[in-house]
Amino acid sequence: MEFGLSQEQTMLQESLARFLGESGNLARSRRFAADKEARAQDVIDGMAELGVTGLIIPEDHGGVGLSLLDAALVSEVLGANVTPAPFIGSSVLAPLALMGAGDAGQQGLWLPKLASGAVVAGVALSEAVGARDGAGVEIRDGKLYGRSLFVVDFEADLYVIVDRSGELHLVAADSPGLTRTPLRTIDLTRPTGELRFDGVEAEPLNSGDTAVALRALIDAGRVMIAADTLGAAQAMLDQAVTYAKERKQFDRPIATFQAVKHMCAEMAADLEPCRALVWYAGHALDHLPAEASITACHAKAHLSEVGTQIAKTATEVHGGMGFTDLVGLHYWFKRIGFNRQILGGPQTVREDAARLKGLAA
Predict the structure, then answer these.
(1) Of 59, 187, 250, 347, which sits 20 to 30 A from 117 (CA to CA)?
(2) 3-state DSSP call for residue 147?
(3) Which residues neighbour 14 within 8 Å (Cβ) at sequence distance 6 or greater?
(4) Average pLDDT, whole number, for the chain?
């Protein structure tokens, strides 16, 4: 039995990494952040050409029809390149919501548009994980009222909304009564924001088991975020090792100093097991439904802790240069920090895992 990636999966990662390298990588992310762009349309178009935007969408709806493990591998590459483009919400969670709870008409209308990249979808899911005071959406007489914070892939044409009862809804971005307010977070590569609803017309997604669909969204979102952190942490580790080999102190590379060797070795030892954890969690989403939720929690919580420590240590290896915009480590550092909290910080996710195992009320 083989426990590695297939040749096709490796090629998928390599092709995407090659495209992102050619499109500018860190330089493109810098420009995106500096210009406060709503969307990096050139990056979105390139991802669409590679089939990334329709990765998990069935072929009969214009997609590629691959697995959620493949989506996690893509998320890892996007994190490694701090890519300023929508993916987790628009290419994973929104298609899952439509495939799990949408009717044939909704699927036929929206899935091809999502697959082609013609439409970007945001997902307002945070309140289903842990609502903040004053946040939450309710439906009255078929209309939505309230507010939702930290919308994934905020700059969108369409939103998947989760209300307080756990029901799913579709809302167009230009709907009357909908107010969109960008929120400033530490991660400038992925816009997030607040949605306010004042009698907004909503289209229900209720053709399937919405409770199962919602749980699938939370699980998939956590695995994709863990994979993004994995990629970002690996990129920071690689940069730290490269810098240590080049930077000289007392006429010798600092990589020859035992303290620096230990820092790099510990980062590598901490991160490598995380790769198998994320792969297994991605595999479980499609093939091991009984384990999907608990492994998603483990992956999200553990990568949040490991990623944070690697971000800190990799910056320390760079010394004072690690804090400068010239090196740009802060783009990965802040992306890891944002990933740690979105859809639940480590403590929240571990409490969720305890409830799933019957160890907490």
Answers:
(1) 187
(2) strand
(3) none
(4) 95
